[in-house]
Design a protein that fits this description.
Layout: E1 2-6, H1 13-25, E2 30-33, H2 44-54, H3 62-69, H4 77-85, H5 88-95, E3 101-103, E4 107-109, E5 123-126, E6 129-132, H6 135-142, E7 150-152, E8 159-163, E9 169-173, E10 197-205, E11 208-216, H7 220-229, H8 233-241
Parallel strand pairs: 1-2, 4-7, 7-9
Antiparallel strand pairs: 1-10, 3-4, 5-6, 8-9, 10-11
Amino acid sequence: MRLAIISDVHGNLRALEAVLADVRSRGVDATVNLGDCVAGPTWPRECFEYLATLNVPTVRGNHDRWIVDRATEQLPPAGRFAREALTQEQRNVLFALPATLELEGGILAVHGTPTDDSTYLTEESHDHRMIPAGRDLVRERLGEAISRKIVLCGHSHRQSVTQFPGGPLIVNPGSVGCAVFADVPTACHWDLRSPHARYAILTQAGGKARVEMLALEYDWEEAADKALANGFPKWAEALLTGAVG
């Protein structure tokens, strides 16, 4: 079983197209999407429409939820842009996505943690930076999912593979289209990243699991130009460089 894992597309259609083309070239059996599909200042509606044609099992991310249940003034600027770009029916489709998914092979798919889409599973914030979370904190966040074989999560936009002692293998594929969420005020303090489109492939065979982490070049100059044209210069910088100055 070879499973492609994508997450945090954030409306970046060009990055999504590059990732899915690569997925098709690698002979995977299925694909799962861990959410935050459209909240971004590039192609939110086009991205929604493209994803809708794929019929890929998808978890609801915090931004997919916020697009309906948060007041406009509570949304980050990119979230407001996405809300305005989508129809009410499209927003409702995102909101109705499941908070978790049960997949073959003992896999649980979530966005943040099994019970909270806005909390990182294996990271925590420290001095405006993202650092690995300690064992006790990860155990607490896993909750009943501690008994799972594999847990897939997104939200942090950081690729990682973590084997919890006596618990699940935790896989975060990174972000397809948003290395840095530029609306976060402290994003300029984050560690250096890159503008690549990221995803992962999980292979299970003979009772063993192998994870491939992939980082792809795509036309991030076009994505940056689109963000700039839509009035989001910080996003343009983040898409082009993987950092915010």
